[in-house]
Design a protein that fits this description.
- The chain contains 19 helices and 13 strands.
- The protein has 440 residues and is an alpha/beta fold.
- The strands form two sheets. It has a seven-stranded parallel β-sheet with strand order 3-2-1-4-5-6-7.
- Strand 2, helix 3 and strand 3 form a beta-alpha-beta unit.
Length: 440
């Protein structure tokens, strides 16, 4: 790990001497994906209010350099979940100095177990839908974890609907993200054909690009001749991307992955933003489309759907239903000449009222900075809130994927075994030691 991202005693001394409101933003990764990007925008609006937050993650990625270049402190600790077990560790002492800690995504929520005794305000910002809960509801006791937070916010009604069953609702709310407005003076309303659609995002089952191809078999030929469908994204696996590439329809164009700036330029030439996802809490590709006054077409399994009036501000259709998707595509083409311009303007209003940075800044300050810490009783003593299988998987992957020295690896193992004084754990950890640590 680059030295610039490592924690030092100098950092601890610096945070202790900082008398402004101190905020720690914890990210599950440093990729260019939606949730980490939303956290960067949160940091930027905090800065406008005189707050300089610190970022903490257990994974290095391209976003770390971007955040550092913006002037924010970034700390990367590959095994923070285990280092935080030691209350005398530099990381634990450092984290204890903050006034507010924001845990970004459900992935970071179990860290509350290690930080429960730290008397600071803890906020969870959830970006997840049904598919994430299928795993985390089994691996963790979310009823206990969620109720350890002072406040929980979700990126929309769709995401909130899955969190409600785990909390009493008292401190559960919605916090839309905000994105910089790139469209001022750039809105381009097309009138010529072909009518252009774009579906942007990772090529995978959840994003349902394969459903789009199936739906085109149900779209009339004269409609297909009037449209162009652009598919943009990095594939996960080969099956779905091959279905897109091998599509029998000449209107489908696979453009592959794109840098964000390149994608935004492409958006200017598009008419409709397609998002037929099977689970997508608040897709930023749709928000960016509305920013450019484009009309969005979304499945009911997206957070965006709750903001759309079908046929007035966009199009909605049931998730996983190729017939409904085909009908929506035909409606969009038939409505194009008469309704598109007005719908595009209404789409832009949705962006301005919910996702503009000024709105986001106000929401972050009111919902995260100004609110007081809740009165939460101490967590009952428990050996672990994770299943043994999940503990083994996490520690195995963390040690295997991290560039640790033998000394660092031994330190982590020692902390882990101190918490879990059970024969089965010792056997597994001995196996991990000989299989992975000795290769370091």
């Amino acid at each position: 790990m680059k030295k610039i991202y490592k924690l030092s005693n100098k950092d601890l001394k610096s945070i202790k001497s900082n008398h402004s409101h101190r905020v720690l933003l914890i990210s599950h990764e440093m990729s260019q994906t939606g949730a980490p990007r939303a956290l960067v925008y949160m940091a930027l609006v905090m800065r406008k209010r005189g707050i300089e937050p610190v970022f903490l993650s257990d994974q290095y990625g391209p976003l770390a350099k971007e955040i550092s270049d913006l002037g924010f402190k970034v700390v990367i600790e590959p095994l923070m979940n285990y280092v935080l077990s030691d209350k005398n560790s530099l990381l634990y002492l450092y984290v204890s100095q903050f006034d507010t800690i924001v845990f970004n995504t459900i992935v970071c929520s179990p860290l509350i177990i290690k930080m429960d005794s730290i008397p600071v305000k803890k906020v969870l910002w959830l970006h997840e839908g049904s598919m994430s809960y299928e795993h985390y509801d089994v691996a963790y006791d979310l009823n206990i974890i969620y109720n350890r937070f002072d406040y929980i916010y979700c990126v929309g009604d769709y995401s909130k609907s899955f969190a409600e069953k785990y909390v009493d609702g008292k401190n559960l709310g919605i916090l839309y993200y905000g994105i910089p407005d790139l469209a001022e003076g750039l809105q381009k309303i097309k009138k010529e054909e072909p009518i252009k659609f774009i579906i942007a995002g990772t090529i995978c089952k959840r994003k349902a690009q394969d459903l789009l191809i199936k739906s085109l078999f149900l779209v009339s030929e004269n409609i297909r001749e009037r449209i162009e469908i652009n598919v943009v994204g990095e594939p996960i696996g080969s099956r779905i991307v091959e279905e897109v590439k091998d599509s029998p329809f000449s209107c489908v164009k696979y453009l592959g992955p794109m840098e964000h700036d390149e994608l935004m330029k492409l958006y200017l030439d598009m008419d409709y933003i397609l998002c037929p996802s099977l689970d997508d809490p608040m897709p930023i590709v749709c928000t960016e489309g509305m920013m450019f006054s484009k009309v969005v077409m979304v499945s009911e399994a997206t957070g965006t759907a709750s903001l759309i009036k079908n046929g007035e501000t966009g199009y909605r259709f049931p998730a996983g239903d190729e017939k409904a998707l085909a009908k929506a595509i035909e409606s969009a083409v038939l409505d194009y000449s008469d309704k598109y311009h007005e719908m595009g303007m209404r789409s832009r209003v949705i962006f301005e009222e919910n996702f503009a940075m000024a709105k986001f800044e106000d929401s972050v300050y009111r919902k995260i900075i100004e609110v007081p810490k809740s009165d939460i009783p101490n967590m009952p003593a428990k050996r672990s809130l994770l299943s043994e299988k999940e503990e083994f998987r996490i520690v195995k992957n963390a040690i295997k994927n991290s560039r640790l020295t033998r000394k660092e690896a031994y330190y982590i193992l020692k902390l882990y075994l101190a918490e879990h004084r059970y024969k089965s754990h010792k056997i597994v950890m001995k196996y991990i030691w000989y299989r992975w640590i000795k290769k370091v």
